[in-house]
Design a protein that fits this description.
This protein has helices at 10-27, 51-67, 105-113, 115-127, 141-154, and strands at 36-45, 73-78, 96-102, 128-138. The chain is an alpha+beta fold. A four-stranded antiparallel sheet has the order 2-3-1-4. Helix 2 runs antiparallel to helix 4. The longest helix has 18 residues, at 10-27. The relative contact order is 0.23.
């Protein structure tokens, strides 16, 4: 898994990977086979967001995903549309998404409590016009969906 999805220097990427490995060895947290926690952030930046503030947000994100050792992988993207009916059903058009993956809920909580995330959160909420943040337990394939739905029935 790669924490270096953004435009980070090679040295910053190596440092982030080393910190993550060290934290995994010390913390003792283990994920259930085939699962992970996804911290999903959908957002639309403010129309008047200055280039300086956009850069500050980007820098805070880079620091968070490199300095916080619990991040398994981080990806960001811009919405793409292909003309399907479901695209017109969206009440709000979130232009961007960030998906940050963690081995388990403990790792996510540690990430959220880290000072680098506090700075990211502050910059994020100052920079957005609209946003949603969700956390999901993710699993693989059709068997994974069946398992999640089965647990839902018992919850």
């Amino acid at each position: 898994s790669d924490v270096c999805s953004s435009d980070l220097s090679a040295r910053a990427c190596r440092t982030a990977k080393l910190r993550r490995r060290k934290a995994a060895g010390r913390s003792g947290w283990r994920r259930r086979e085939g699962t992970l926690i996804a911290h999903v952030v959908l957002f639309r930046p403010r129309a008047e967001l200055s280039a300086e503030n956009a850069q500050a947000l980007s820098d805070a994100f880079a620091r968070a995903i490199t300095e916080i050792p619990f991040v398994r992988r981080a990806r960001v993207g811009r919405r793409t549309t292909i003309g399907r009916d479901y695209e017109r059903l969206m009440a709000v058009d979130y232009e961007y998404a960030a998906v940050i993956e963690f081995d388990d809920v403990t790792a996510l909580k540690n990430y959220l409590e880290h000072p680098a995330h506090a700075e990211l959160g502050r910059r994020f909420f100052e920079s957005i016009e609209a946003g949603l943040v969700y956390d999901f337990e993710m699993t693989t394939g059709a068997d994974g969906l069946a398992s999640l739905l089965e647990r839902r029935g018992g919850a």
